[in-house]
Each structure stands twice: as C-alpha cells, then as structure tokens.
Amino acid sequence: MLTNLTHRQLEAFRAVIETGKVTAAATVMNTTQPSVSRMISDLEHVVGFALFERRGRQLVPTSEALALYEEVERSFVGLAEIARVAEDIRDFRTGSLLIAGMPALALKFLPDVIASFIRDEPGVSVSLRTRSSQAVLRHVSSQQFDLGFAAIEAEHPAVTRRPIFTASMRAVLPIGHPLAEKAYLEPSDFHEQPFVALGSEISTRSETDVFMAAGNARPRVVAEAQLSASICELVAGGAGLSIVEPVTAANFAVAKKVVAKPLHPEQPFQYDLLLPALREPTRLATRFLELVDAQFARLLDG
Fold first, then answer.
1. Where is each HTH lysR-type domain found (predicted)?
2. CA–CA distance, 289 with 297 (Å, rounded to integer)
C-alpha cells in the first residue's frame, strides 16, 4: 500500500495533466514551480513509474499516468460533490423539517412562517402535521419530528417542553357589534349575550367558565366548537360573542372578519415549544424558530 501518497501530490499531478505545464499548474495551485516539480518527483518515487515525458516545453503524460489520472479525477469529482453538499447544508440550500402543530398555530400562523422560511431557504422542504396538543407531544416523543407546537401541561421524558410565547386571551365579536366600542370586555359584558363556547373537553373552557363566574355572568351558549378558528368563523357569521386564544383572534382581526378585544381581568394563554429530548435541534430548526419568534412579535406584541 502506498502509505506516502498525499492529496497534495495528486493535486499537482492533476494540475499538470490538465494544463500541460508545471508553470501553469503552479498558478492553478497558488504555489511555486519548484514546489510542483518536487511534488511530481515525489509522486513518481511513491508510485514507482514515470508520469511525464518532456517534449520541448510541454509535459506529455505517459500511458500509466493517463490510467492513474482517470482514478484521480473520479476521486476529485467525489470530493467536489462532498464539498458541494457540505456547502448546501451550511447555507441551508438542502435539508428538511418535520413539524407538528396544534390547530391554533397550524392553520394560519405556522403556514405563514413556513412560507417565509422557504422563500429564504428554497432548497429546504418542510412538512407540517396538524394535530391536537396531546398528539403533538406523542409525535415529538418519537424523536422523528424536529419541532412541536402545543399548549399543554403534560410532560414526557423524551420531550423537552418550554414556553415559547404567552399572551392574554381575546374576546371576539362580530364586526359592528356595540361592545366593539369598548377598550376591553369584562365578565358582565357577556351576561345573557349569545355566546359560542369551546367544547367542554377543551381545558381552556373551564378557565373561561371561571372568568364568567367571577362577574356572575351567564352568557347564553348558542353553539360549541373544538377549534378557535371554527369559533371565530361562527362569530364572524353573527352567531354570537366568544373568547379564544390570542393568535387565532389576531389573525381573524387582521383579516377584518371579527373584532378582537382584551379581557379584564386578563386570561393568560401559553404556547409551548416541544423538542425531541434525545437529540439537539438542527441548525434548520434553530433558524425556523427565529422566524417563529419574529412572527409572534409582529402579530401579538403591542
């Protein structure tokens, strides 16, 4: 085995083959002519046969050199491809993200972030699965998903959970409703008003019930729905008032489909980021989370 063979010798050999001159090869390699001549001499010593014949000012490769060049060229092409892939990974020109999100974020908020992300990183593919918060936790615990977005208090040993954003829940009203003139809504404002409620199995429903009870308010429940987006559509259609998490309320308010108002007293709502605990976040995931933070700030801050 030729243990003294070096990559630099092969680089010099390849350059001389392709340029036909030691001087030109030295320029290509950004080195001196004597250095290239020495590397060629060393390579001939290592391989045990002549590589070039001198004909005037030209170096002509021997048949053995041409046979060797075919293998050298293949190896350089392979190295170039490895370098290209490494650059693509470094510059986010390739890769994928698998994301699971609760409906409150996966129906509008996360698609907006993903659209911005793939505009910036067109070589990256993103897959978004819309699931309940409990299902998001299960998906991320499999270690197959890069990121999960939920609102959940449960823990899992294979999942790292951390708050990503907290904001107050919002009252949502049909456009033109008289209460839309108020700066904020209190429990008494909902008394005997037609109200679209979250399904009784949703944890936030009990918090809303406590909010109403604090002011002895008894709204008239005319409909129930599981998703904040469904509730906002019902409100937009004039079915009644409601209280939903802030991201969906803000998205519908921006679309001018409902009016969103703060509550007094406030009802905080926390969105959670779920990460696979058995591996570090990828560089792509970290970059994506920067855009998530920026989107929260644009939509809800102030």
1. 5-62
2. 12
Query: 3-class SS at 216?
Result: coil
Bond before 265 cis per omega within 30 degrees:
yes
d(CA 149, CA 130): 10
Sheet architecture: strand order including 258-262: 242-244, 170-174, 258-262
Instruction: Compute φ and ψ for 147, nearest 5 degrees.
Output: -145, 145
Who contacts 295 (Cβ-Cβ below 8 Å, separation ≥6)?
Answer: 109, 112, 113, 116
Q: Is 191 exposed, middle or buried (0-12, 13-18, 19+ CB in 10 A)?
A: middle
302 confidence band (pLDDT: 50, 70, 90): low
Q: What dihedral angle (degrees, nearest 10) is formed by the CA atoms of 127, 133, 134, 135? A: -20
Overall fold of domain 170-266: D-Maltodextrin-Binding Protein; domain 2 (3.40.190)
Positions of CATH 3.40.190.10 in the chain = 96-165+270-300, 170-266
Which CATH number applies to 96-165+270-300: 3.40.50.720, 3.40.190.10, 2.60.40.1180, 1.10.287.130? Answer: 3.40.190.10
Q: pLDDT value at position 88?
A: 53
CA 185 – CA 258 distance, rounded (Å): 15
CATH architecture of 7-90: Orthogonal Bundle (1.10)
| pLDDT(81) > 90 | no
